[in-house]
UniProtKB/TrEMBL annotation:
A Pfam cross-reference name: Glutaredoxin
TM segment ranges: 30-50
Annotated organism of origin: Microtetraspora malaysiensis
The protein, known as: Glutaredoxin domain-containing protein
Highest classification ranks of the organism: Bacteria, Bacillati, Actinomycetota, Actinomycetes, Streptosporangiales
Keywords for the protein's UniProt record, in alphabetical order: Membrane, Transmembrane, Transmembrane helix
Stretches assigned to the Glutaredoxin domain: 71-127
InterPro entries: Glutaredoxin, Thioredoxin-like_sf
Domain of life: Bacteria
């Protein structure tokens, strides 16, 4: 859990340091804008942007019942963030598994990618797709949800 917050906290610390330097230089408005930018980046790269994660076993069980894809992801992954942002509200219609919080999820990704933990890995009907196009993922969502 702690490593999921390393990058967001690093953004906050750097933002505070940049803001302090700008205040010392006599530019409080630039300091506020810089701090806001770094806090927004921290939010985007935090686990808070993603729908609530579940375990891999539970995701597989649910996917077998409702045919929704499973997305294996990890915080700080720019490709996971891209997928999440492009899916918009449809992201809630997938089952999300944070591989840093779930060892079974990490193992499933390694099995699907030949030993790497390459994310996002989307599993649909038992078949893995590594870093698929978000439009394609949206097209695979069941209609009656």
């Amino acid at each position: 859990m702690a490593r999921a917050w390393i990058l967001p906290m690093l953004f906050v610390v750097v933002g505070v340091l940049v803001a302090a330097a700008r205040i010392a230089a006599g530019s409080p408005v630039a300091a506020a804008v810089s701090l806001l930018l770094f806090v927004l980046l921290a939010g985007l790269y935090s686990p808070l942007v993603f729908p609530r994660s579940i375990g891999a076993v539970e995701a597989q069980r649910r996917s077998a019942v409702d045919a929704r894809p499973i997305v294996y992801w990890r915080p700080g992954c720019k490709y996971c963030l891209r997928l999440r942002m492009r899916l918009g509200r449809d992201a809630r219609r997938l089952h999300w598994v944070n591989i840093w919080r779930d060892p079974a999820g990490a193992a499933a990704v390694r099995a699907a990618t030949g030993g790497d933990e390459t994310v996002p890995t989307v599993v649909l009907a038992g078949r893995p797709y590594v870093n698929p196009d978000p439009a394609w993922v949206r097209g695979q969502l069941p209609r009656s949800t």
